[in-house]
Every structure is written in C-alpha cells, then in structure tokens.
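Here comes a specimen:
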Amino acid sequence: MANESVAKKQKRSQIIFNILLKNHPSLNTFLTHKNPFELLIAVILSAQCTDERVNLTTPALFKQFPTPHKLAKAEESDVMTLIKSINYYKTKAKNIIKTSKNLIKHFNASVPDTLEELISLPGVGRKTANVLLGQAFGKPGITVDTHVKRVSTRLGFTQQNDATKIEYDLQKAWKQSIWTDLSTHLIYHGRQRCKPRQPICNDCAINTYCPSKNRIMLK
C-alpha cells in the first residue's frame, strides 16, 4: 500500500479498529489499578517488565503505600523489597518515590492530566504519559510500545524506528477518536497474533488490510 494517502490510511485504520473491537469488545488497560495514581505507578513499573508480573507485585505495594503522601515518605529499601521481582527495581523504587514527592510538591498530590506535566515526572516518558491520558483521563493518546511499533510498521502506518516519530505518524494515520483504543487493541494483537517471530497471519482477522501479509507468510 505504497503512497497511500492520509485519508486512505485513516479509512483503513478505522476498518482495522472495527474488526479488532468486534473480536475483543471489552479490552482496556492490562494493568490492574483503582485510580490514576495506582495506574501511574504501575505503568512506571511495567517498563521492561510484563504486565502480569506488575499485577502480581502492586497489590502489596499499594496496600502499604496507597497514596502519594505514603509513598513519598517510604524508605527506598522498603519499596525495593516489595518490588524486587520487577526488572530494574532499584531504579524504579527511586523513581516512584521521587514521582510521589513531585505530585505533592507541584500537583497537590494529584496526577496531572496533560502530556507536558506528566513527562515532567521522574520515570515518565511519552508512552507512560499517553497511557495515563487515555486510560485515566479519557483523553486521546497513542501508546507506542514494542507491540504497537511492530504491528503498525507491518500494517504500513509507519516506517520509523523512533517511538516519538512513530507516534506522530500514527497521529496522522489514525483518527483522533480511536487513538487510545486502537493502541490497546494493537498491543493485544501483537501479543496474541502479530508476534515478533512466526506471526499467525493465516488466522489473523485483519490480514486483508495488512500489506506485509504475503511477505511474512512466504518466509
């Protein structure tokens, strides 16, 4: 689908979204949380770690430190003990404590709801910020993780390698109304069907709209 216009990309992405939504109508964020603060901490912890591992870890963390005020006063060693099963737990313990302190100092202990404010927090990049915007505040945001990068490249929506440039490409290729939900569905699709190795193209609901289908299947 070379030289596809923006209008045609938006039309194709809407069709893809409709198919994925029909197959999995109740998808939401994969991280267990009760409020924006818990989601923020969970997403920070999820970097280079599986959602399943994070979901096993956060209940004990939030039981002991349920608010920014509690976590801001925590000893790093106590937090490390609670999250030690997570990759880079030492750095992440420092970041979530610093983030809690910043929430108190700059945002009245509330999680901010703008991209600029979110990325000012320790350990928070555009990916984390967009998860918060979409899942906690209902604001459009495109989450570019490894799955979205792979699937959107195979679908011909981007040829970039940099996550921020991919995000900008997808902002053009997708209508804003589906940014958050299509991100979630592509993450799920990347895990279940469009895998890094041996993607399941023959049993893919959107293969009709994938320009990489024949190339991948012939490998």
Remarks:
- The chain is about 60% helix and 0% strand.
- The chain has two domains: 6-27+143-217, 36-137.
